[in-house]
Specification:
heterodimer, A: about 260 residues, Ubiquitin-like (UB roll), 2 domains, two-stranded antiparallel sheet, 9 helices, 7 strands, B: about 625 residues, alpha/beta, Flavocytochrome C3, Chain A, domain 1, 17 helices, 21 strands, binds flavin-adenine dinucleotide, binds iron/sulfur cluster, binds FE2/S2 (inorganic) cluster
């Protein structure tokens, strides 16, 4: 296959970037998208040019490291598929492919297609955990959880923290990511003690990072490689409302509505 | 040099309890004054850093990914073992201990493995308390599945993403400590050397991968939880960034490297499809519960449509050779058997080597829906990669490098032979002997990090309470920093004609062909020469683009490949020295009459720990004493 690539090149966070065009003539349909990028980089290095920086690690769709906007779509054309799981057979011979980084104010570009998603870690720091020190747990089967609830919690827990939902959203909202974590713990009995403070603190951090608010366009769900459902956002909204009136929150946060 | 494994006295089942109740403690006030560096945020590193933070130590944790949640542990699929005996099928700490010792072909320490089995049950409790959504039965209790090489159901799982869920549990504990300011996290940082002062580990040199800045970090102790080195083979199921650099730098500073040649080759992976291939994808071991492995009997049939090959023209070679375990023989046995039929010319792939894993009988017996329910996500992944439908055609599979049992030598306290330097998880050599059983790596990583290191490190740190914060202006830091900078400049200035990947691929091919599933004295001797020549060429002809003071993934790779080029040679030396077949290490010279692996206990019942010397490493032997288990031939016939 012959492919024309238009790739976002940006030396670092400070300098401006622009699209550059490259030609590849030795692409095969069995190649993964990132293997195609590897080949491009090998050519660039041999020509004495700067290879394209992009994030990747597992190449199995689970680590959440890969992050490219391909022809305008985060993670490219296939539904429920990360960039690293995409293969060149999804493209036509002679096609031009445009590749850009995940764009959002809260995800500053590091170089080329690599961005800084540290904001996601800070949202988790604000409350995305159950406070249990090592060694203080009860026997695992002492907490029965019905299968339906456990499965719903697992559906939410499948989020890989890639940030495609943010890149897809016109408001750069991270509500899908945030709601997946809030839902997982709100559903489980272990998550109840910190339920109210958790959601408030995490939403507060989300806003402080500069992510926008949700206006229900559902672009996030459409582009999410793990098909995290927007019903989690509905649950988040309920959790937030309930939390603002909980006694614990009124006391701890001096919150009044 | 004498190695002291520090195994506590007493009866095997009592050793850990009596050790932990007598180990010296560090008071809360003193903990606040003690700094610990943890390199790695996988299961082992994240659980250790979080727990040390909870205990009150000042912790700094480092990883090279952009978030601790992305460590390679995230990719583990199948599950984690624990001796809970929730299924009432006769499981116990003893059985898990015994299965692991036998599965490791009697090349692991009894005391370590028993402790691992003891800790296994606490891991499940801890993870459930953190909100890890393990699979459950309708009654609300935890579900289990079984894995190769055992006869009980003791594997806990979260769909096909057990590693992800366990790591997210450890990651949330870690983020909680970051919020509590007991842990400071350094993402996109790579440790490039360990700093020793008066023979003790006192800090590290790290590179900020975004700015390129070289930094000094001091601490009372350094913990390496940096994962395995399977990527020395270039192609493996490991994440692209997995590497040996942290462990290798420690080895160069004096830490012994144990059993480097013990590599696990996993039998069911998607085969190589072209020269551009960058990594291999695992198809979970659980598939062998319902899939049957075969190749055509006649070579002429090998590329024929498999649906047209009659039953009597197929060779179900695992069922034929191992009637007792059939398709569920352990990984090392299944992998070698696939190699034998492919070497004999019966590979079913026009692109290289492959055998069939066929679900048609299971689909007939149980229906497509049942199979989809059990393996749907794996079948989808297979189809996405190969563009073939495994419900209609048998899968093509072939073995691939998956895990490394070898690693830094550690004693019972998980301390390397350098005081103050610890190694956890896949980075150490400790618990799996010559072959690891499925679902045991996750167990070991979390046992090490949550339950073992936080106890054992007290034995060292209790003697360090009078040591002030480490001064990074000490000349030892300056020297180490200069070495790191010199190496970076050296790599950037060679400006040759071959890329880092080209060298890595060549090294991988030597390793796979001569130090892979079958090893011979002749091949290993040849491999050593080839690796040395390749290493010489690397330092004359590699081309590393970009600069030192910027985000430069090519430079990161170059440093890692430089270390792989040294490790590869040590693996070959170790494989040559061990003239027996055991576990994942198969020497063609050491076989039984019917071609099976032949162990040699009288000569090789030891851990081979190597002391660094680029030209002539020294072997230090730690003899293995089996006090309780009696080693026997490992037969699955
Ligand atoms: C595809 C696959 C499936 C698997 N499935 C299973 C399974 O079902 N059950 C099971 O028990 N095991 C399984 N395993 C094995 C298991 O996943 C690993 O052995 C285990 O997760 C290793 O954990 P770890 O914490 O030791 O290291 P890793 O998870 O590899 O973490 C290493 C950490 O060290 C950091 N690091 C490394 N070098 C440096 C450096 N120089 N500077 C800074 N940071 C550094 C990395 O950033 C990372 O955070 C599987 C393995 C693979 C490849
Ligand atoms: S919700 Fe989906 S798109 Fe967003 S971070 Fe999670 S996996 Fe990625
Ligand atoms: S590289 Fe890990 S999800 Fe794509």
């Amino acid at each position: 296959m012959k492919i024309t690539l238009k790739i976002w090149r940006q030396r670092n966070a400070k300098e401006a970037g622009k699209l550059e065009t490259y030609q590849l003539n030795d692409v095969t349909t069995d190649m993964s998208f990132l293997e195609m990028m590897d080949i491009l980089n090998q050519h660039l290095i041999k020509e004495g040019k700067d290879p394209v920086a992009f994030d990747h690690d597992c190449r199995e769709g689970i680590c959440g490291m890969c992050s490219m906007v391909i022809n305008g779509k985060p993670h490219g054309p296939l539904k429920a598929t990360t960039t690293c799981q995409l293969h060149m057979r999804s493209f036509k011979d002679g096609e031009t492919i445009t590749i850009e980084p995940f764009r959002a104010g809260a995800f500053p570009v590091i170089k080329d297609l690599s961005v800084n998603r540290g904001a996601f870690d800070r949202i988790i720091q604000a409350g995305g955990y159950i406070s249990v020190n090592t060694g203080s747990a009860v026997d695992a089967n002492a907490i029965p959880i019905d299968k339906i609830t456990a499965d719903l919690a697992m559906d939410a827990a499948e989020c890989i923290g890639c940030g495609a939902c943010v890149a897809a959203c016109k408001n750069s909202s991270a509500m899908l990511f945030l709601s997946a974590k809030v839902s997982q713990f709100a559903l489980l009995p272990q998550g109840q003690a910190e339920r109210s403070l958790r959601v408030l603190n995490m939403v507060e951090q989300h806003d402080a990072e500069g992510f926008g608010s949700c206006t229900n366009t559902y672009a996030c769900e459409a582009e999410c490689p793990k098909q995290i459902s927007v019903t989690n956002i509905a649950r988040l909204n309920r959790e937030y409302l309930m939390a603002t009136s909980s006694a614990q929150v009124v006391k701890e946060k001096n919150f009044s509505m | 040099m004498q190695l002291d494994s520090k195994i506590p006295k007493g009866n095997l089942p009592d050793k850990w309890t009596s050790y932990s109740s007598s180990v010296p403690l560090v008071s809360p006030a003193n903990k606040r004054r003690i700094d610990v560096i943890v390199i790695g945020s996988g299961l082992a590193g994240a659980s250790a850093a979080a727990t040390l933070g909870e205990l009150g130590y000042n912790v700094k944790c480092f990883c090279f990914q952009d978030s601790p949640r992305r460590a390679h542990s995230i990719a583990a699929q199948g599950g984690i073992n624990a001796a809970k005996n929730y299924q009432n099928d006769g499981d116990s700490v003893w059985r898990l201990f015994y299965d692991t010792i036998k599965g490791g072909d009697y090349r692991a320490r009894e005391a370590n493995v028993h402790r691992l089995a003891e800790c296994s049950t606490h891991i499940i409790d801890q993870c459930v308390a953190q909100g890890v959504p393990f699979a459950r039965e309708y009654g609300g209790l935890l579900a289990n599945r079984s894995f190769g090489g055992v006869q009980v159901s003791r594997t806990f799982y979260a769909r096909g993403q057990t590693g992800q869920q366990l790591l997210l549990g450890a990651y949330s504990a870690l983020e909680r400590q970051i919020n509590a300011k007991t842990v400071e996290m350094f993402t996109r940082h790579e440790m490039l050397d360990v700093v020793l002062i008066d023979g003790k580990a006192r800090g590290i040199i790290a590179r900020d991968l975004v700015s390129g800045e070289i930094q000094r970090h001091g601490a009372h102790a350094v913990v390496l939880a940096t994962g395995g080195y399977g990527n020395v083979f270039f192609l493996s199921t490991n994440a692209m960034g997995s590497n040996v650099t942290a462990a290798w730098k420690a080895h160069r500073k004096g830490s012994l490297f144990a059993n480097p040649c013990f590599t696990q080759i996993h039998p069911t992976c998607i085969p190589v499809s072209g020269h551009f291939q960058s990594k291999l994808t695992l198809m979970s071991e659980s598939l062998r519960n319902d899939g049957r492995v075969w190749v055509p009997k006649r070579k002429e049939d090998r590329l024929k449509n498999p649906l047209e090959i009659k039953e009597e023209d197929r060779d179900y070679y695992l069922e034929r050779r191992y009637p007792a375990f059939g398709n569920l023989v352990p990984r090392d046995v299944a992998s070698r058997a696939a190699k034998i039929v492919c070497d004999a010319g019966n590979s079913v792939s026009e692109k290289g080597q492959a055998v069939y894993l066929d679900f048609s009988d299971a689909i007939k017996r149980l229906g497509k829906d049942k199979i989809a329910e059990r393996y749907g996500n794996l079948f989808d992944m297979y189809q996405r990669i190969t563009d073939e439908n495994p419900y209609e055609r048998p899968m093509k599979i072939f073995p691939a490098v998956h895990y490394t049992m070898g690693g830094l030598w550690v004693d019972y306290e998980l301390s390397t032979n350098i005081p103050g330097l610890y190694a956890l998880g896949e980075a150490n050599f400790s618990d799996h002997g010559a072959n690891r059983l499925g679902a045991s790596a996750l167990m070991q990583g979390l046992a090490d990090g949550y339950f073992i290191l936080p106890v054992t490190i007290g034995s060292y740190l209790s003697k360090e309470i009078r040591t002030p914060h480490i001064d990074t202006n000490h000349p030892a830091f300056a020297t180490a920093e200069k070495q790191v900078k010199d190496q970076i400049n050296q790599l950037l200035n060679i400006n040759g004609t071959k890329t880092v990947d080209e060298f890595h691929m060549e090294l991988g091919k030597i390793m796979w062909d001569k130090c892979g599933m079958e090893r011979t004295a002749q091949g290993l001797t040849q491999a050593r020469k080839e690796i040395r020549a390749l290493r010489d060429e690397f330092y004359k002809n590699v081309k590393v683009s970009g600069n030192a003071d910027e985000f430069n993934p090519e430079l990161e790779k170059a440093g890692r490949v430089a270390d792989f080029l040294e490790l590869g040679e040590l693996m070959v030396i170790d494989a040559l020295e061990r003239n027996e077949s055991c576990g994942g290490h198969f020497r063609a010279e050491s076989v039984t009459e019917d071609g099976e692996a032949k162990r040699n206990d009288s000569e090789y019942m030891y851990v081979a720990a190597w002391q660094y010397d680029i030209n002539n490493p020294t072997l230090v032997k730690e003899p293995l004493d089996y006090e309780v288990v009696h080693p026997s031939e490992r037969s699955y016939k």
